[in-house]
Amino acid sequence: MTPPGPVGDRFRRFRERLAAAGGDRPPVSDERPDAARNAELATGADHPNDRNTAAGNRTAAGNRTAGRRRGRRGGGGEELRVPEAEFTSYYGRPVLKPPVWKWDIAAYLFTGGLAAGSSLLAAGGQLTGRPALRRAGRVTALAAVSASAVFLVKDLGRPARFHHMLRVAKPTSPMSMGTWILTAYGPAAGVAAIAEAAGVLPRHGLLGLAGRVLPPIGHAAGLLAAGTAPALATYTGVLLADTAVPSWHEAYPELPVIFAGSALASGAGVGLLAAPPAQAGPARRMAVAGAALELYGAHRVETRLGLLSEPYRLGRPGRLLRAGRLLTAGGVAGALLGRRSRVVGALSGTALLAASVLTRFGIFYGGVASARDPRYTVVPQRERVEARRSGMDLPSDRAAPPAV
């Protein structure tokens, strides 16, 4: 028969509690007599299953609360935090576009420094009366600057583009200034090298007149080339530092120093190779000065830049720079200890030239590696933002996230 109204309401509420608690509790047995079940519901007594479920729910809730408290207080629970950001970019592309320059630009860096160092060597031989040093320096300077022009035009794609750079002179542009430096240096180095042919010209006639005029013109051109050489040796370092490539841009104080030292060392290598030991004194002094500048600058870029020093220590750039340091040290040691040996001098000069090549290529590839990894772009930017924010006492948006 149909139970009374209040009993039916209680039974309906009981069924709703069962449905809300989930299906993990055993259902109410249907084998009990309807009268006993209705009496239990009429008296408001709790079913044993209902009591066990409520106690279990209270215990589980207490455990969850205690776990959260332990996690917040560090009392044994694991504290969850937002995971560290991964330095990735859209479709796996780097944040910066890597330089499109190839190996020919690294070779251009070397040949430009070699031309500058050779002109300084030739000027030293000219002023101190050492014809072997003067001749070797002038001829090498012309060959090196010619190779630089070939590498530069190859990168530009068309020779006319170099001519178009001469339409303006922009002091704030290292590329514009470099174009004008090459324009001033190249003809001077060429005239100084051509003047070395005066000794093989006839003494009479028009060629004899040229043979008498060329030496003083060559002296003036050699000094002009030597005066332009420091700018030629260092402007490429300024050019690299003026880019957005992280490890080049941050090393703007050191790159000109490294390139100046490398230029002096390569010029000294030419003198040690070509001149007899009796005339190689200026070359040995150039080797010591160039090695000191190069090693000092290389040490700075590998230690001062923090995270951005990694590209100069790891991988191919690190191997190239380490080998360059060893060859530089060996070349200087041979130049100083083997003063009377032509063979030791030649080996020392070869080591210095090879060290200059490795140093230029190591610096070049180190910058390319820093542009390809977004970590070298993102992390220094965040550090600079934090430094400015802490200096201005602004609130930080990189505080530790709350525990979950």
Would you mind describing this structure in some detail?
The protein is mainly α and 404 residues long. Helix content is 72%, strand content 0%. The protein contains 15 helices and no strands. It has helices spanning 5-21, 34-43, 48-73, 103-127, 131-156, 159-165, 174-194, 205-241, 246-249, 255-274, 281-303, 310-313, 315-337, 342-372, 375-391. Helix 4 runs antiparallel to helix 5 (131-156), helix 4 (103-127) crosses helix 8 (205-241) and helix 8 packs antiparallel against helix 10 (255-274). The longest helix is centred in the middle third of the chain and has 37 residues, at 205-241. The chain is elongated, with a radius of gyration of 40 Å. Residues 27-61, 63-75 and 394-404 have low confidence and may be disordered.
Shape: elongated
Mean pLDDT: 78
Low-confidence stretches: 27-61, 63-75, 394-404
Q: N-to-C terminal Cα separation, in Å?
A: 55 Å
How large a portion of the residues is in β-strands, by DSSP E? Answer: under 5%
Note the main sheet. Answer: none
What percent of the residues sit in helical stretches (DSSP H or I)?
Answer: over 70%
> What does the radius of gyration come to?
40 Å
> Count of DSSP E strands?
0
